[in-house]
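This protein record is not my work; I was only asked to verify it. The record follows directly below this note.
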Amino acid sequence: MRQTLIEKIDLFIEQALSLQLSQTGRLPLTIHDPEWPSECLQQPSESGHQIPWKPVLQSPDNNSCHDMLDRLEAALGYSIHQDLRTWYSRYWSDPLPATSDWGDLSLLFLWSEKDCERLRGNLIGHLLTKQKQKQPATLFFACTEPDGEKFLSIDNQTGEVWLEQPGKKPIMKLADSLEAFLGKLTPKPIPDME
């Protein structure tokens, strides 16, 4: 049976957490910043101290991500691919590391509702550049590691996953869909933030 995109995302998150716990015996740590609260944080802490975190399902009645994407569509005048809507509205999380046949990468997520506007601004900038260069609209969801010089995106028309470099045409098609692409990824341990 073919798994849905939501099932693939859930499976990747489950595998990433399982790997983390088996290799370190604990959740990853991040520096607590009271300016950037998140449901991902697992215990209260003082500002500047390390605190455990983990990816957390967004509430089904959380509309902040959907509202942000609706406003993005209104600004652009066209619809955003459903796979990208699903991707950014499924989990709150810091970026998660993974490896693939094409190298290491970092999967991007939203940390909190406050993060939605930052993402919207970045997506608008990216899409306006694509429009100016008369290239097909793509929407990023990951970047390459360790340099971060390239990124992975979803073609807004076809849903295909592409490797890109800022300001240039897509370099290489990696998968026919985000669902297929996730099936080719292996999670890596999540580094602590210092």
